[in-house]
Design a protein that fits this description.
By secondary structure, the protein is an alpha/beta fold. It has 8 helices and 7 strands; from the N terminus they run βαβαβαβαβαβαβαα.
């Protein structure tokens, strides 16, 4: 049985993954900021232990993750805030970049000395990094940075026998996406997301994308000339 460490485990995909691996008898270390929800999660299975800390705090990461030695680490925590009508809010951008990019980097820095050959790190990105959606300047930039970082890190860690997987979900029905005020095509349940991630990891994939149809559509749009992309994406701009 594996030791599986999951950040963002207090809700959404992270909580779903924690329950799924615990149900299969694996030791799960569920991490997040909401101690109350983590405690509730921990009571659901004797295979789940919890750690409450803020991953944007580098020292807190080092203290909380100092002796975990996971076989599989899934860095799932994230946030989303949009910019409105092109007004650049530096504090908002910083919050999103710190949580979605520096948070996982802090966790990786704390865990790297504990990862042995044969272990795997999973970073949950987003399909948003393929296209330059309006309002998504902060979110898209954070997920693009995370994806680039992960793909580069994969090359440096391959000689050590440590695998790196990037997950690019579309819209998943979580408390975070329920705040969105726009249509979310192809939205899937947390259960579907968990199954897709576990299926991809069982196959040893470096990149896991779901839902497939929506992902393929975005990839095709991203392959269009930039001028055509702008024509399509401008239709989403709010006046």
């Amino acid at each position: 049985m594996m030791t599986v460490l999951i950040t963002g485990a207090s809700s959404g995909i992270g909580a779903g993954l924690a329950k799924s691996w615990a149900a299969d008898g694996h030791r799960v270390i569920a991490c997040g900021r909401d101690a109350q929800r983590l405690d509730a999660l921990g009571r659901e299975s004797p295979n789940i232990t919890t750690k409450a800390f803020d991953m944007t705090d580098r020292d807190a990461c080092r203290e909380a993750l100092g002796a975990c030695s996971p076989d599989l680490a899934i860095l799932c925590a994230g946030t989303c805030e949009y910019l409105e009508r092109g007004v650049v809010d530096a504090e908002r951008v910083e919050r999103v970049m710190t949580t979605n990019f520096m948070g996982p980097v802090n966790c990786l820095a704390a865990l790297q000395g504990q990862l042995a050959s044969g272990s795997r790190v999973v970073l949950v990105s987003s399909m948003a990094h393929w296209l330059h959606f309006p309002r998504a300047e902060a979110y898209g930039a954070s997920k693009t940075a995370l994806t680039w970082f992960a793909q580069s890190l994969r090359l440096d860690w391959e000689p050590k026998g440590i695998a790196v997987t990037v997950v690019s979900p579309g819209f998943v029905d979580t408390p975070l996406t329920r705040k969105n005020d726009f249509a979310m095509p192809g939205r899937v349940s947390v259960d579907s997301a968990v199954k897709a991630i576990r299926r991809g990891l069982a196959k040893g994939k470096n990149h896991i994308m779901f839902p497939t149809g929506f992902g393929m559509t975005l990839r095709l749009l991203a392959a269009l000339p930039e001028s055509l992309q702008r024509v399509l994406l401008r239709r989403m701009v709010r006046s």
